[in-house]
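Sequence in, structure out. Go.
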Amino acid sequence: MKLDKKTAILFHDFFMAALAWQLAWLARFNFEFPFFNWQLSLYTLPFILLVQGFVYNRFNLHRSLWRFASLPDLWNIIRASIIGALSITLVLFLWSRLEGIPRSILILYPVFLMFLLGGPRLIYRMWKDHSFNLKSASGGKRVLIIGAGKAGEMLVRDMRRDAEFLPVGFIDDDPDIQKSSIHGVRVLGKIADIPQVAADKQADIIIIAVPSATNEEMQKILLSCEQTECALRTLPPLNDMVSGKVTVSDLREVSIEDLLGREKVDLDWQIIQQGITNKKILVTGGGGSIGSELCMQIADLDPRALIIFERSEYNLYRIESRLAARFPALHRYCILGDLCEREKVDHVLEQYQPDMIFHAAAYKHVPILQGQAREAVRNNVLTTRYLAEAAIKNDCRKFVLISTDKAVNPANVLGVTKRIAEMICEWKNRQFNTAFLTVRFGNVLDSEGSVIPLFREQIRKGGPVTVTHPEITRFFMTIPEACQLIMQAGAMGQGGEIFVLDMGKPVKISYLAEQMIRLSGKEPGEDIHIRFTGLRPGEKLYEELFYEAEGKDKTKHPKILLARHTSLDRELLAAKLNDLEQACSEFNDNQIRLILEQLVPSYHEDTITATQIMDNVYPLNTTKP
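Output:
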């Protein structure tokens, strides 16, 4: 009958306890046999095994896996040996006053036991880690690892356990560790040396093991790696590595997100938890890119209830499924409905009485909204007013509007409607007990409707990749980072603020396209071409985060700024909002556009019909440049 691992470990440890006891007697009498009172060493053996067994169980020695034996396991063995010896001494003293038992045996026993318990574990671990066979020495894929820090060290340790990968060297810019070794793998050079080292070592794969790398560091690494023909793999960003352990299974292909959004965001979780833990939180647009990530992060902070308001049935089903799988105990209420329906908004807020609202629902596609001003106003402006008034009526404590950089000096319908939504929050702030604040930021990577999925699909089809203009730039951040900073700003806000997230440096869209092509293993201009199509209606070459007259202040958080916005004509805003609602009910597109210009004087556009816009966005002749 085959023993399971735990039983085999128990037999091993009990046998070693008996052997250590006998070795202690033999050592005491210079390994001569028979020695004085040798029968007593056998008579006392049952006591030894019984007491040592209790100690083993206390320290769970039988539960540790020998393949992953480490310093904590060694510390457990030392404690189990010493405490076992002290316990045995006490039991034998009570049984026979230690008569006939030399005192030196009680000192020698734990020393022998430490070696006998730890030695086999260490040998087994070394055997498994180094796999003493020809296959591991020659058959694995040859790996060059960038980053000789903790992540790289753990990665090498994990690779030693199987034959799939063979680490051939480290690359690290730290001058103090050049030519040193980690687990027998040498540091062979710096980032600039990657092409030469990869060629010399005949590397098959380059692994970027720097989960805390900044954008600039990642771009530098990638630029050097592009000069090789090696496959590229990387570890997840530091924010995603919750356990802190690094294994080969964590590896994935390098993505454009790794180049643009790897900075670690430090948050004041204490103040965030005060605003969310044990509170009822409502998220509108909870099935969208930003809304769904907000829901997941909020759920992790143990709210009393999470209310998700979503118009798309499929998106609502998707976020509900994700929440149910990860947070089964969460009190969640998934509301299918349209925020444009004022009665529905009033009913939901009256029924659930949320303490805090994150208003993420909005239309966001610039070219489509240029020809759909009525729908943009209804979904971006009127819903904000309906929701704000319902929040005040039901004594909601805080209202957070998710805005966009396109609201600054708007050149399109999307931007002007989001700017008016910001103005509504300023107008409604501190009416009764509700604090209104706005969080403004740029594009998020891989969101629905962004260029990343479009480029990815075009590359998959072999190109061309379409970019509107060679000089067009945009701000980018990752969805998780944006949501974390939204929650931080929401927790910091007292009411009336427009918080602006620090988006870093703007990125050329043509650069994005080139890097995504390279990451797919192709060369821009040779394997896949980039075609410039011209700016679309309402599209600007660059976006701004502040109005010129706003100015900006620092806040307690280094990545959150405060816009000092100008005073608002509240009476004009109230009157024009009523006019907008009336124009929407009459489907008067020209009147809607005129009111938008009156509310936001910096916004101007040429009158254009919906048919003209849609023909421009989706031309019949798709091959026309």
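Check: Residues 131-137, 606-625 have pLDDT under 50 and may be disordered. The chain has three domains: 5-130, 134-260, 269-617.
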